[in-house]
Amino acid sequence: CGGLANPISDDLYTNPRDCCASQLVWRFTDFCEADSLLSTCYTGTGLYYQGDDVESEVCVRDCDPSVTGDTTCGGLVEDSFVVLHDTAEACCTAEYNWMDNVL
User: Fold this and answer.
1) pLDDT level of residue 5 (50, 70, 90 thresholds)
2) Residue closest to 81 by CA, chosen among 54, 50, 56
3) Could you give phi then psi for residue 37, rounded to 5 degrees?
4) Rounded distance, CA 24 to CA 22, Å?
5) Is 99 exposed, middle or buried (0-12, 13-18, 19+ CB in 10 A)?
6) Pairwise CA distance, residues 73 & 85, whole Å
7) Separation between Cα atoms, residue 24 and residue 1, nearest integer Å
């Protein structure tokens, strides 16, 4: 997870993924693992999430638009509370159920 290990604590992990899942539960595990390894290879899940962060009521994909050039990307999901959906339609139905959903 980063930082110096506390020799008094038993909270040592053999890999970043276990540490993220156990100690940083608010962070999306895949993102946390890549961030812990200082990896620039993580490209997101490609799944859809509520895109209110992009200042629009749309569903966007979990990917980095500056890397992919894909305008459907809303940025990498960092937090575990963000609900991911398989399709844009499933996302819109779940997250914006008060709107008419015509794709």
Assistant:
1) low
2) 50
3) -90, 5
4) 6
5) exposed
6) 14
7) 8
Q: Of 58, 62, 78, 80, give the one whose Cα is nearest residue 70.
A: 62
Tally the C-alpha atoms within 13 A of residue 9's C-alpha that lie toward its C-beta: 7
Q: Mean pLDDT for the chain?
A: 84
CA proximity to 45, closest of 68, 24, 23 = 68
* Torsion of the alpha carbons at 83, 56, 102 and 72, rounded to the nearest 10: -70
pLDDT (tens digit per residue) in 39-87: 888 889 999 999 876 567 889 999 999 888 898 999 999 998 999 999 9
pLDDT surpasses 60 at 1: no
Element (H, E) at 75: strand 73-75
Whole-model pTM above 0.85? no
